[in-house]
Amino acid sequence: MGEEAAGADRDTAVAGGGDKTPRTERGRRTLRVLLDAAAVEFGERGFHDASISGITRRAGVALGSFYTYFDSKDAVFRALVTDMSAQVRDHVAPAVRAAPDGLAAERAGLAQFIGFVRDHKEIYRIIDEAEFVDADSFRRHYASTAERIEARLRAAAARGEVRGDVSDVHAWAVMGMNVFLGLRYGVWAEDRGIDDVADQAAALLRDGLAPRKG
Amino acid sequence: MGEEAAGADRDTAVAGGGDKTPRTERGRRTLRVLLDAAAVEFGERGFHDASISGITRRAGVALGSFYTYFDSKDAVFRALVTDMSAQVRDHVAPAVRAAPDGLAAERAGLAQFIGFVRDHKEIYRIIDEAEFVDADSFRRHYASTAERIEARLRAAAARGEVRGDVSDVHAWAVMGMNVFLGLRYGVWAEDRGIDDVADQAAALLRDGLAPRKG
Protein backbone atom coordinates (compact mmCIF):
# COMPACT_ATOMS: atom_id res chain seq x y z
CA MET A 1 0.00 0.00 0.00
CA GLY A 2 3.00 2.26 0.17
CA GLU A 3 2.16 3.78 3.55
CA GLU A 4 5.72 3.03 4.69
CA ALA A 5 7.16 5.74 2.48
CA ALA A 6 4.45 8.22 3.41
CA GLY A 7 6.70 10.70 5.21
CA ALA A 8 9.08 11.07 2.31
CA ASP A 9 6.26 11.20 -0.25
CA ARG A 10 4.56 13.90 1.67
CA ASP A 11 7.51 16.28 1.90
CA THR A 12 8.13 15.94 -1.80
CA ALA A 13 4.50 16.44 -2.68
CA VAL A 14 4.08 19.37 -0.34
CA ALA A 15 6.81 21.54 -1.68
CA GLY A 16 6.41 20.41 -5.26
CA GLY A 17 9.71 18.53 -5.31
CA GLY A 18 11.71 21.59 -6.38
CA ASP A 19 14.07 23.92 -4.52
CA LYS A 20 11.45 24.55 -1.85
CA THR A 21 11.64 21.16 -0.11
CA PRO A 22 12.85 21.92 3.43
CA ARG A 23 16.23 20.34 4.22
CA THR A 24 16.36 20.96 7.98
CA GLU A 25 14.25 19.76 10.89
CA ARG A 26 13.37 23.38 11.64
CA GLY A 27 12.28 23.90 8.04
CA ARG A 28 10.04 20.83 8.19
CA ARG A 29 8.48 22.11 11.43
CA THR A 30 7.72 25.51 9.87
CA LEU A 31 6.20 23.79 6.83
CA ARG A 32 3.99 21.71 9.17
CA VAL A 33 2.85 24.83 11.03
CA LEU A 34 2.06 26.58 7.73
CA LEU A 35 0.04 23.62 6.42
CA ASP A 36 -1.94 23.33 9.67
CA ALA A 37 -2.66 27.07 9.55
CA ALA A 38 -3.66 26.74 5.88
CA ALA A 39 -6.14 23.98 6.81
CA VAL A 40 -7.84 26.33 9.28
CA GLU A 41 -7.74 29.33 6.93
CA PHE A 42 -9.09 27.47 3.86
CA GLY A 43 -11.50 25.43 6.00
CA GLU A 44 -13.05 28.52 7.61
CA ARG A 45 -12.96 31.00 4.76
CA GLY A 46 -12.94 28.90 1.58
CA PHE A 47 -10.38 29.28 -1.19
CA HIS A 48 -11.53 32.60 -2.61
CA ASP A 49 -11.68 34.48 0.71
CA ALA A 50 -8.60 32.85 2.20
CA SER A 51 -5.34 34.81 2.03
CA ILE A 52 -1.64 34.15 2.41
CA SER A 53 -1.46 36.78 5.16
CA GLY A 54 -4.33 35.00 6.95
CA ILE A 55 -2.28 31.79 6.85
CA THR A 56 0.95 33.36 8.11
CA ARG A 57 -0.92 35.26 10.85
CA ARG A 58 -2.49 32.01 12.10
CA ALA A 59 0.87 30.25 11.82
CA GLY A 60 2.76 33.01 13.65
CA VAL A 61 5.24 33.04 10.77
CA ALA A 62 6.58 36.09 8.91
CA LEU A 63 4.93 36.71 5.53
CA GLY A 64 8.32 36.48 3.80
CA SER A 65 8.88 32.98 5.21
CA PHE A 66 5.77 31.76 3.40
CA TYR A 67 7.55 32.20 0.09
CA THR A 68 10.40 29.98 1.26
CA TYR A 69 7.87 27.17 1.01
CA PHE A 70 5.19 28.15 -1.51
CA ASP A 71 4.94 30.36 -4.57
CA SER A 72 1.27 31.30 -4.27
CA LYS A 73 -2.12 30.70 -2.65
CA ASP A 74 -2.76 28.08 -5.35
CA ALA A 75 0.47 26.29 -4.46
CA VAL A 76 -0.25 26.10 -0.73
CA PHE A 77 -3.82 24.90 -1.43
CA ARG A 78 -2.51 22.17 -3.74
CA ALA A 79 0.05 21.15 -1.13
CA LEU A 80 -2.65 21.12 1.55
CA VAL A 81 -4.89 18.71 -0.42
CA THR A 82 -1.94 16.35 -0.96
CA ASP A 83 -1.00 16.70 2.71
CA MET A 84 -4.55 15.98 4.02
CA SER A 85 -4.84 13.01 1.70
CA ALA A 86 -1.52 11.69 3.11
CA GLN A 87 -2.58 12.46 6.70
CA VAL A 88 -5.75 10.38 6.31
CA ARG A 89 -3.75 7.55 4.75
CA ASP A 90 -1.11 7.62 7.51
CA HIS A 91 -3.72 7.89 10.28
CA VAL A 92 -5.64 4.88 8.96
CA ALA A 93 -2.69 2.67 7.95
CA PRO A 94 -1.45 1.31 11.32
CA ALA A 95 -4.91 0.04 12.37
CA VAL A 96 -5.48 -1.45 8.92
CA ARG A 97 -2.09 -3.22 9.05
CA ALA A 98 -2.72 -4.51 12.59
CA ALA A 99 -6.12 -6.02 11.73
CA PRO A 100 -6.30 -9.85 11.72
CA ASP A 101 -7.93 -10.14 8.29
CA GLY A 102 -9.22 -8.19 5.30
CA LEU A 103 -12.74 -7.52 6.57
CA ALA A 104 -11.44 -6.48 10.00
CA ALA A 105 -9.01 -4.18 8.20
CA GLU A 106 -11.85 -2.37 6.39
CA ARG A 107 -13.76 -1.98 9.66
CA ALA A 108 -10.65 -0.59 11.39
CA GLY A 109 -9.99 1.75 8.47
CA LEU A 110 -13.51 3.20 8.66
CA ALA A 111 -13.37 3.64 12.44
CA GLN A 112 -10.02 5.43 12.20
CA PHE A 113 -11.30 7.58 9.35
CA ILE A 114 -14.39 8.76 11.26
CA GLY A 115 -12.20 9.53 14.27
CA PHE A 116 -9.81 11.55 12.10
CA VAL A 117 -12.70 13.45 10.52
CA ARG A 118 -14.14 14.38 13.92
CA ASP A 119 -10.80 15.98 14.78
CA HIS A 120 -10.36 17.57 11.33
CA LYS A 121 -13.86 18.57 10.27
CA GLU A 122 -12.41 20.98 7.69
CA ILE A 123 -11.11 18.09 5.56
CA TYR A 124 -14.35 17.68 3.60
CA ARG A 125 -14.59 21.34 2.75
CA ILE A 126 -10.98 21.42 1.59
CA ILE A 127 -11.01 18.25 -0.51
CA ASP A 128 -14.45 19.06 -1.94
CA GLU A 129 -13.33 22.58 -2.87
CA ALA A 130 -10.36 21.06 -4.70
CA GLU A 131 -12.88 19.86 -7.32
CA PHE A 132 -13.16 23.51 -8.33
CA VAL A 133 -9.78 24.97 -7.40
CA ASP A 134 -7.45 22.13 -8.35
CA ALA A 135 -9.28 19.31 -10.14
CA ASP A 136 -6.11 17.20 -10.53
CA SER A 137 -5.56 17.03 -6.75
CA PHE A 138 -9.22 16.15 -6.21
CA ARG A 139 -9.04 13.33 -8.73
CA ARG A 140 -5.70 12.08 -7.44
CA HIS A 141 -7.02 11.93 -3.86
CA TYR A 142 -9.97 9.68 -4.75
CA ALA A 143 -8.17 7.64 -7.40
CA SER A 144 -5.28 6.82 -5.07
CA THR A 145 -7.60 6.05 -2.13
CA ALA A 146 -9.62 3.67 -4.31
CA GLU A 147 -6.41 2.02 -5.56
CA ARG A 148 -5.28 1.39 -1.99
CA ILE A 149 -8.64 -0.14 -1.06
CA GLU A 150 -8.63 -2.31 -4.19
CA ALA A 151 -5.09 -3.54 -3.43
CA ARG A 152 -6.19 -4.43 0.12
CA LEU A 153 -9.28 -6.28 -1.14
CA ARG A 154 -7.31 -8.20 -3.77
CA ALA A 155 -4.70 -9.24 -1.19
CA ALA A 156 -7.52 -10.36 1.13
CA ALA A 157 -9.11 -12.30 -1.74
CA ALA A 158 -5.79 -14.02 -2.43
CA ARG A 159 -5.74 -15.10 1.24
CA GLY A 160 -9.33 -16.40 0.95
CA GLU A 161 -10.66 -13.79 3.40
CA VAL A 162 -13.12 -12.16 0.98
CA ARG A 163 -14.85 -13.33 -2.19
CA GLY A 164 -12.48 -14.00 -5.05
CA ASP A 165 -13.99 -11.65 -7.62
CA VAL A 166 -13.32 -8.30 -5.93
CA SER A 167 -12.73 -5.44 -8.36
CA ASP A 168 -12.42 -1.68 -8.70
CA VAL A 169 -16.23 -1.54 -8.38
CA HIS A 170 -16.02 -2.93 -4.83
CA ALA A 171 -13.20 -0.52 -3.99
CA TRP A 172 -15.22 2.50 -5.15
CA ALA A 173 -18.29 1.23 -3.30
CA VAL A 174 -16.32 0.86 -0.06
CA MET A 175 -14.73 4.29 -0.48
CA GLY A 176 -18.10 5.94 -1.15
CA MET A 177 -19.59 4.27 1.91
CA ASN A 178 -16.69 5.50 4.05
CA VAL A 179 -16.79 9.05 2.69
CA PHE A 180 -20.52 9.46 3.34
CA LEU A 181 -20.45 7.78 6.77
CA GLY A 182 -17.59 10.16 7.64
CA LEU A 183 -19.61 13.15 6.45
CA ARG A 184 -22.77 12.14 8.33
CA TYR A 185 -21.30 10.78 11.59
CA GLY A 186 -18.00 12.65 11.64
CA VAL A 187 -18.80 16.16 10.38
CA TRP A 188 -22.56 16.74 10.52
CA ALA A 189 -23.36 15.15 13.89
CA GLU A 190 -21.85 12.78 16.42
CA ASP A 191 -25.22 11.25 17.33
CA ARG A 192 -23.85 7.70 16.94
CA GLY A 193 -20.66 6.31 18.43
CA ILE A 194 -17.82 5.45 16.07
CA ASP A 195 -17.94 1.73 17.01
CA ASP A 196 -21.69 1.62 16.39
CA VAL A 197 -21.28 3.04 12.87
CA ALA A 198 -18.22 0.88 12.13
CA ASP A 199 -19.93 -2.31 13.40
CA GLN A 200 -23.01 -1.74 11.22
CA ALA A 201 -20.91 -0.93 8.17
CA ALA A 202 -18.65 -3.94 8.80
CA ALA A 203 -21.66 -6.27 9.06
CA LEU A 204 -23.00 -4.83 5.80
CA LEU A 205 -19.63 -5.36 4.09
CA ARG A 206 -19.27 -8.87 5.49
CA ASP A 207 -22.75 -10.32 5.00
CA GLY A 208 -24.77 -7.83 2.97
CA LEU A 209 -28.41 -6.92 3.57
CA ALA A 210 -29.99 -10.27 2.71
CA PRO A 211 -32.17 -11.57 5.58
CA ARG A 212 -30.21 -13.48 8.23
CA LYS A 213 -30.67 -17.23 8.06
CA GLY A 214 -30.90 -19.18 11.30
CA MET B 1 -41.47 7.95 -0.75
CA GLY B 2 -43.48 10.87 -2.02
CA GLU B 3 -42.32 10.61 -5.65
CA GLU B 4 -45.95 10.83 -6.74
CA ALA B 5 -46.16 14.52 -5.84
CA ALA B 6 -42.78 15.29 -7.36
CA GLY B 7 -44.02 17.54 -10.16
CA ALA B 8 -45.92 19.84 -7.84
CA ASP B 9 -43.10 19.88 -5.27
CA ARG B 10 -40.62 20.82 -7.89
CA ASP B 11 -42.49 23.84 -9.25
CA THR B 12 -42.98 25.18 -5.75
CA ALA B 13 -39.38 24.62 -4.79
CA VAL B 14 -38.05 26.11 -8.00
CA ALA B 15 -39.73 29.44 -7.79
CA GLY B 16 -39.53 29.63 -4.01
CA GLY B 17 -43.28 29.25 -3.58
CA GLY B 18 -43.94 32.99 -3.87
CA ASP B 19 -45.36 35.17 -6.61
CA LYS B 20 -42.87 33.76 -9.10
CA THR B 21 -44.42 30.30 -9.45
CA PRO B 22 -45.52 30.06 -13.10
CA ARG B 23 -49.29 29.65 -13.49
CA THR B 24 -49.45 28.81 -17.20
CA GLU B 25 -48.15 25.93 -19.29
CA ARG B 26 -46.08 28.42 -21.27
CA GLY B 27 -44.60 29.81 -18.04
CA ARG B 28 -43.67 26.32 -16.88
CA ARG B 29 -42.00 25.65 -20.23
CA THR B 30 -39.93 28.84 -20.00
CA LEU B 31 -38.93 27.97 -16.43
CA ARG B 32 -37.83 24.52 -17.64
CA VAL B 33 -35.75 26.06 -20.46
CA LEU B 34 -34.13 28.49 -18.00
CA LEU B 35 -33.25 25.72 -15.54
CA ASP B 36 -31.75 23.54 -18.28
CA ALA B 37 -29.71 26.50 -19.51
CA ALA B 38 -28.63 27.23 -15.92
CA ALA B 39 -27.41 23.63 -15.56
CA VAL B 40 -25.15 24.08 -18.61
CA GLU B 41 -23.97 27.56 -17.56
CA PHE B 42 -23.18 26.65 -13.92
CA GLY B 43 -21.84 23.22 -14.96
CA GLU B 44 -19.40 24.68 -17.50
CA ARG B 45 -18.36 27.91 -15.79
CA GLY B 46 -18.91 27.31 -12.07
CA PHE B 47 -20.94 29.61 -9.84
CA HIS B 48 -18.56 32.55 -9.71
CA ASP B 49 -17.98 32.86 -13.46
CA ALA B 50 -21.56 32.02 -14.45
CA SER B 51 -23.84 34.95 -15.28
CA ILE B 52 -27.56 35.59 -15.65
CA SER B 53 -26.97 36.86 -19.19
CA GLY B 54 -25.10 33.63 -19.96
CA ILE B 55 -28.16 31.67 -18.83
CA THR B 56 -30.68 33.73 -20.82
CA ARG B 57 -28.45 33.62 -23.92
CA ARG B 58 -28.26 29.82 -23.74
CA ALA B 59 -32.01 29.65 -23.07
CA GLY B 60 -32.88 32.02 -25.93
CA VAL B 61 -34.97 34.02 -23.46
CA ALA B 62 -34.95 37.79 -22.98
CA LEU B 63 -32.95 39.01 -19.98
CA GLY B 64 -36.05 40.68 -18.54
CA SER B 65 -37.96 37.37 -18.59
CA PHE B 66 -35.38 35.88 -16.22
CA TYR B 67 -36.64 38.15 -13.46
CA THR B 68 -40.17 36.85 -13.92
CA TYR B 69 -38.82 33.62 -12.44
CA PHE B 70 -35.80 34.44 -10.29
CA ASP B 71 -34.53 37.39 -8.26
CA SER B 72 -30.81 36.74 -8.62
CA LYS B 73 -28.00 34.38 -9.64
CA ASP B 74 -28.15 32.92 -6.13
CA ALA B 75 -31.87 32.25 -6.50
CA VAL B 76 -31.53 30.41 -9.82
CA PHE B 77 -28.62 28.36 -8.46
CA ARG B 78 -30.64 27.38 -5.39
CA ALA B 79 -33.58 26.46 -7.62
CA LEU B 80 -31.29 24.45 -9.88
CA VAL B 81 -29.95 22.31 -7.00
CA THR B 82 -33.50 21.58 -5.83
CA ASP B 83 -34.52 20.83 -9.42
CA MET B 84 -31.59 18.45 -10.10
CA SER B 85 -32.24 16.67 -6.82
CA ALA B 86 -35.89 16.23 -7.87
CA GLN B 87 -34.89 15.15 -11.40
CA VAL B 88 -32.69 12.37 -10.01
CA ARG B 89 -35.47 11.27 -7.67
CA ASP B 90 -38.08 11.26 -10.44
CA HIS B 91 -35.77 9.49 -12.89
CA VAL B 92 -34.99 6.72 -10.41
CA ALA B 93 -38.46 6.29 -8.87
CA PRO B 94 -40.35 4.30 -11.57
CA ALA B 95 -37.69 1.56 -11.81
CA VAL B 96 -37.45 1.39 -8.02
CA ARG B 97 -41.24 1.06 -7.73
CA ALA B 98 -41.39 -1.59 -10.47
CA ALA B 99 -38.72 -3.80 -8.84
CA PRO B 100 -39.95 -7.13 -7.41
CA ASP B 101 -38.28 -6.68 -3.99
CA GLY B 102 -36.18 -4.36 -1.86
CA LEU B 103 -32.77 -5.53 -3.03
CA ALA B 104 -33.82 -5.47 -6.68
CA ALA B 105 -35.12 -1.94 -6.06
CA GLU B 106 -31.69 -0.76 -4.86
CA ARG B 107 -30.02 -2.35 -7.88
CA ALA B 108 -32.52 -0.67 -10.23
CA GLY B 109 -32.07 2.65 -8.45
CA LEU B 110 -28.30 2.54 -8.91
CA ALA B 111 -28.52 1.55 -12.58
CA GLN B 112 -30.98 4.38 -13.27
CA PHE B 113 -28.78 6.81 -11.36
CA ILE B 114 -25.63 5.98 -13.34
CA GLY B 115 -27.61 6.31 -16.57
CA PHE B 116 -28.93 9.71 -15.49
CA VAL B 117 -25.44 10.88 -14.55
CA ARG B 118 -24.02 9.87 -17.93
CA ASP B 119 -26.60 12.12 -19.58
CA HIS B 120 -26.15 14.93 -17.01
CA LYS B 121 -22.47 14.91 -16.15
CA GLU B 122 -22.74 18.46 -14.79
CA ILE B 123 -24.85 17.27 -11.82
CA TYR B 124 -21.84 16.48 -9.61
CA ARG B 125 -20.22 19.83 -10.20
CA ILE B 126 -23.46 21.66 -9.41
CA ILE B 127 -24.43 19.73 -6.28
CA ASP B 128 -20.84 19.71 -5.01
CA GLU B 129 -20.52 23.46 -5.55
CA ALA B 130 -23.70 23.94 -3.51
CA GLU B 131 -21.62 22.98 -0.45
CA PHE B 132 -19.94 26.38 -0.87
CA VAL B 133 -22.62 28.49 -2.53
CA ASP B 134 -25.76 27.28 -0.75
CA ALA B 135 -24.94 24.88 2.10
CA ASP B 136 -28.63 24.37 3.01
CA SER B 137 -29.47 23.01 -0.45
CA PHE B 138 -26.44 20.72 -0.34
CA ARG B 139 -27.45 19.33 3.01
CA ARG B 140 -31.10 19.00 2.03
CA HIS B 141 -30.19 17.05 -1.11
CA TYR B 142 -28.23 14.39 0.76
CA ALA B 143 -30.44 14.30 3.86
CA SER B 144 -33.59 13.78 1.79
CA THR B 145 -31.93 11.18 -0.46
CA ALA B 146 -30.77 9.21 2.61
CA GLU B 147 -34.26 9.46 4.14
CA ARG B 148 -35.80 7.99 0.98
CA ILE B 149 -33.30 5.11 0.96
CA GLU B 150 -33.88 4.44 4.65
CA ALA B 151 -37.66 4.40 4.15
CA ARG B 152 -37.23 1.90 1.30
CA LEU B 153 -34.93 -0.33 3.37
CA ARG B 154 -37.28 -0.26 6.37
CA ALA B 155 -40.26 -1.16 4.18
CA ALA B 156 -38.23 -4.01 2.67
CA ALA B 157 -37.25 -5.17 6.17
CA ALA B 158 -40.92 -5.17 7.22
CA ARG B 159 -41.61 -7.44 4.22
CA GLY B 160 -38.73 -9.74 5.23
CA GLU B 161 -36.73 -8.93 2.10
CA VAL B 162 -33.68 -7.53 3.91
CA ARG B 163 -32.26 -7.97 7.40
CA GLY B 164 -34.51 -6.60 10.12
CA ASP B 165 -32.06 -4.19 11.72
CA VAL B 166 -31.57 -1.70 8.86
CA SER B 167 -30.91 1.86 9.99
CA ASP B 168 -29.81 5.30 8.86
CA VAL B 169 -26.24 3.90 8.79
CA HIS B 170 -27.20 1.48 6.03
CA ALA B 171 -29.00 4.23 4.13
CA TRP B 172 -25.94 6.51 4.22
CA ALA B 173 -23.68 3.60 3.22
CA VAL B 174 -25.89 2.79 0.21
CA MET B 175 -26.08 6.45 -0.80
CA GLY B 176 -22.31 6.89 -0.55
CA MET B 177 -21.75 3.78 -2.64
CA ASN B 178 -24.15 5.08 -5.29
CA VAL B 179 -22.67 8.59 -5.37
CA PHE B 180 -19.11 7.32 -5.84
CA LEU B 181 -20.04 4.64 -8.38
CA GLY B 182 -21.89 7.37 -10.29
CA LEU B 183 -18.84 9.63 -10.16
CA ARG B 184 -16.41 6.92 -11.29
CA TYR B 185 -18.52 5.06 -13.90
CA GLY B 186 -20.90 7.84 -14.88
CA VAL B 187 -18.78 11.02 -14.97
CA TRP B 188 -15.09 10.07 -15.03
CA ALA B 189 -15.17 7.18 -17.51
CA GLU B 190 -17.62 4.75 -19.06
CA ASP B 191 -15.13 1.87 -19.10
CA ARG B 192 -17.66 -0.51 -17.51
CA GLY B 193 -21.24 -1.07 -18.58
CA ILE B 194 -24.02 0.10 -16.29
CA ASP B 195 -25.32 -3.46 -15.77
CA ASP B 196 -21.84 -4.68 -14.87
CA VAL B 197 -21.44 -2.01 -12.17
CA ALA B 198 -25.02 -2.46 -10.92
CA ASP B 199 -24.68 -6.27 -10.76
CA GLN B 200 -21.45 -6.10 -8.74
CA ALA B 201 -22.88 -3.48 -6.38
CA ALA B 202 -26.12 -5.47 -6.00
CA ALA B 203 -24.20 -8.65 -5.14
CA LEU B 204 -22.19 -6.68 -2.57
CA LEU B 205 -25.38 -5.27 -1.03
CA ARG B 206 -27.10 -8.66 -1.04
CA ASP B 207 -24.34 -10.99 0.21
CA GLY B 208 -21.42 -8.83 1.29
CA LEU B 209 -17.77 -9.60 0.69
CA ALA B 210 -17.44 -12.72 2.85
CA PRO B 211 -16.10 -15.67 0.83
CA ARG B 212 -18.82 -17.59 -1.09
CA LYS B 213 -19.72 -20.89 0.49
CA GLY B 214 -20.43 -23.86 -1.76
UniProtKB/TrEMBL annotation, chains A, B:
Gene3D superfamilies, sorted: Homeodomain-like, Tetracycline Repressor, domain 2
Pfam families: TetR_N
PROSITE patterns in alphabetical order: HTH_TETR_1, HTH_TETR_2
Top-level lineage group: Bacteria
DNA-binding region: 51-70
Annotated stretches, region: Disordered: 1-27
Keywords: DNA-binding, Transcription, Transcription regulation
Keyword Oxidoreductase annotated: no
Molecular function GO terms recorded: DNA-binding transcription factor activity; transcription cis-regulatory region binding
Domain HTH tetR-type: 28-88
UniProt key word Transcription: yes
PANTHER family in the record: HTH-TYPE TRANSCRIPTIONAL REGULATOR BETI, HTH-TYPE TRANSCRIPTIONAL REGULATOR RUTR
Name of the molecule in the record: TetR/AcrR family transcriptional regulator
Organism name: Sphingomonas liriopis
Native organism taxonomy: Bacteria, Pseudomonadati, Pseudomonadota, Alphaproteobacteria, Sphingomonadales
